[in-house]
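Students often ask why we bother encoding 3D structure as a string. The short answer is that it lets us treat folding as translation between two languages. Here is a chain of 361 residues written in the first language.
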Amino acid sequence: VTGDGGPVKAAGASVTVVGNATTVKAAGAIVDIGVTATGDVDAAGAQININGVISGNVHAAGATLDVRGQVTGDVDLAGAVINSNVQTQGKMRAGAASLTVGPASEIHGSLQAGGAVVSISGHIGGKVEALGGLLTFDAQADGPVELSGDRIVVGPNARVAGDLTIRSRHDPKIESGAVISGTVNTIAPPTWWQVTPWMWMLVIGTAIAAGTVLTGIVLLLFGGRVFMAATEHVRHRPLSSFLFGVLALVVIPFIGALLVATVVGITIGLAVFLMLPLLIIGGHAVAAAGIASGLLVRRNGEIGALLGFVMLVAGAILLVAIGLIPWVGPALVGIAIVLGTGAFVRTLGARIRRADVRPAV
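And here it is in the second language, the structure alphabet:
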């Protein structure tokens, strides 16, 4: 998609947006955004790459994110693996299993970062608050820095103009060469801090919930009727939708493998493979809204877009809470995603079949 100066909305297996735009809303298995935008950029997908000049805010959620370029507003990122080297006039908030704030980062506002493995470098003009299992800080900060984690390393290139506060069960490692202009305060954590795995799971769960909600918003914007119809399938036809999901997760990779094996059909085969992450991501949001509405809404008939959004948020939180249940939680979430994927697939299939029907002449 080449922007012509107006708003851009795009969704598909592989989405590339270039040119000029006011706002950008993009979703897909692979999303590449390299625009000059006067407004906000919102992206959701399995793999997201952003590198442009954006005058508004950036909101992105996905499995892997690579974010660069210049942003005037705030940057909010959620995912499994995030690599950011963005230059922003605003603040940045990011949560991931593995989060890297790279050396080219220039954040004029504050930074809030959390994850299992967190590495921070670059320059931060405001306050830094970071939480991680393994947390490395090797950046220049003009304000105070608060680091909380199990293992904390302050690198040789670290420059802290304000106070440095460290909360950890273990003594931090402050490398030779690090310069802290303020005082260094090391605080022993309270008893509840000992349950560190739960804290990391909570951080990751929050990122997943945010990504689910963002995906649902994109689906509501681009295909509200499809999203709401799929939600109703989860709500009223859970068994058949689950079977559709199992079938889709088996048949789609099989067809993709056959096409790739023919060599001639390798391009189409790869496109078929790329459909699967998109369907699963969409299915996760559909499952969240459908399960929550099935539990909380008693009236018959479609629930509507506004209530659907409320159920999407409630369901995203519910699925994260279920996922935190030891042993069985991840399996239950997996079943829910298969259910949502099946409902999403059957709804898309029904729409395609209706579109193919032509009146007889």
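Translate back mentally: The two ends are 36 Å apart (CA to CA). Keep this in mind for the problem set.
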